[in-house]
Amino acid sequence: MPPLPAIRHPLLASLEAQLRLAPREAMVRDIERIERLPADIEPQRDYPNDWVIFRVTGFRPNDVAEGSMTGEQLLADLCALNENLCARSKLTLTECAAGSPLTLAQLRERWNVSEPTVKRLRRAGLITRRVEDNSQPLSVAMLAVVEAFEARNPQLLAPAKKTKRYDDALRARLVHRASAYMRKLGWSIFRCAQRLAETEGVSEEGVRQLLLRELATAPTQPDITPRRAAAMWRVHRLGVDITDLARISRRSAPAVRREINLARLATLRALPVAPPSLIELTTATQALAHPLVTANLRTPWPLDLLELLADWRARSPVKPALERAQTTAFAALRQHAAETLASLNHLSPRATALDDAETALRHATLLQRELIRAQHRLLIETIDARVGHPVEQLSAWRVTLLLREAIAAAAEASLLFDPVRGGRLAASVGIAADKAVTRIVRNWLPVHASASRRAQAILGPGVPVPDLTRRLNPWQKFTDPDPRVAKGVLTGSLSDQHARLLITRFGLLGSAPRTRAQTAGDLTLDEIRYAHAESAALRSAIAAALGAT
Description:
The protein is mainly α. The chain has helices at about 10-20, 25-35, 50-55, 70-90, 105-110, 115-125, 145-150, 170-185, 190-200, 205-215, 225-235, 240-250, 255-270, 280-290, 290-295, 305-315, 320-345, 350-375, 375-385, 395-415, 425-440, 445-450, 475-480, 485-490, 495-505, 515-520, 525-549; strands at about 45-50, 70, 100-105, 130-135, 135-140.
C-alpha cells in the first residue's frame, strides 16, 4: 500500500491529528469543504490560521495562536490533508460513484500530461481522494473538482505546445526578471513563475524549478526589520490603518500586524513595569473596585503658571484610606500588565493580550497622575523651603524647571513605593523632591547672592504652563494617545461616534480606559469595523487639533 502524502505545514498537520478523532460523518463533510476551498485561494496572499481552520471544519476557534500561511503553502498541503482524512474515514470507490470520480491515469489522458505533472498539479490545488477499491487504495478526483480546477487553469485544455528549450540567454533573462519582480513588487517565486511562463511561452513548472535553484536564498518579500516595525507601530498609533501600512511595505496585512505586535511586545517587555512587591488577588480586586480608582482620573490643571501655583498651595492632603487604595491599584495594574506580557509567546503574541496589558498600563498612568496631584502642596512647600522665599519671586523659566524636576522626583518615588510595606507616599515623595530641588538650587547660589541685594521680580499672570505629566513613567509614551487626540476631541468637531470611541477607549473624561474589545462592545461594532473606526477617529482628532492651532 503506497504511503499517504506527508503534510508539511504544522498547522494543517495538527488539524489532521485532531480531525482524525471526529466521527466519520463529520470527516466526510470536512473532505467536501476542502475540495471547495482552492477556488477561494490566491497563492500570493496570506490567510490567518483561524480562517483556514474555519474553512476546513466549519467552526471558528477561539484559542488558536495568531499567525498566517501563504496561499501557496495552503494549496500545497490541502491535497495531502484531504487524502489523509479519506484514508481515516475509509471511503470506498462505491461511495464516491455519484461524483463521477476520475483516476490519475484518466486525468493524464484527459490533459495529455505526464505523471510528474499531475503530482505537481496536486500541490497546486488539485484535490484528490484516497479511496478503497476492492481493498486496494486508489487516488481519484471528483469530476466537479476537476472541472473547477480546469476553469482556474484553462491552459490544461489547450493543445500541447512545442517545448521551448532553455538556453543560457533565456535562463539569465528569466532569473533577472524574477529578481526584479521579487525586489520591487514583493512577488513570490510562484507568482514570478506564473508571469514569466505567460510572457515567455515556457513551462510554468520549468520556470519555477529554475528560480528555486537560482534564487532559493533570495527574499520573496522585503524584510520588516525591528526598527521598521517600531516605526509602523508609532504611525499606527496616530491613526494610519494596517491596510495602508501593508500597501506601503508591500506585505500582507496579517504580516504587518504580526510585526507590529512583535514590536509592541519587545518594547513593553524591556521596560520596568512590575511593582516592587506582588499584590494578592483579593487585595487587588478590592482596590480596583474603589470608585476613585475608576473615575475622576483626569482633573484638569490650570493653564496659567500663577494659577497653577495657587492651585498647588490650596491642595489638601489625601485621606490615608484613599491613598492606600490608589497605590495598591497602581501596583496591581502594573503587576497584571507584567504577568500578561510574560505569558505571551515571543514569536506570535496575541493582540488582545497585548492590548489588555497596554490598557492596564494606561490606567496605571492616570492613577499615578492623581497620586502625584495629591502631593502638590508638599512639592511647592519643599521648593519654597529650598529657594528661601516663595517661588513666585523667581522668573517663569526657573519656576517651570523646579516644578518639572519636583514632579519627576515624585513620579520616581511613586514607582518605587511599596504599598505592601505600608507607610505614606508623602515621605518618599518629600525626600526625593528635596534632593532634586536642592541639586538645582545649588547651581543658582551666585544668582541668589546677588539678587538678595536688590528687589525680586514677581511672577505675573499670563504665563502659559506646559503639560508637566507627559513623562511620569517609562511606558507612558508607548501607551498614552498623542496629546493632539484629547485636544481634537475637545474642539467638538468630531462625529458623535468618533468622539465617544476616543473618550471611552482612552478615558479622556476621567473614567478608566477600556480595551479594544470592551470599547467595540460598547459601540456594538465587530472587530474589523472597530479597527477601522478607531484609526479614522484618531486621524480626525489629530486633524481637528491641527486645524484649531
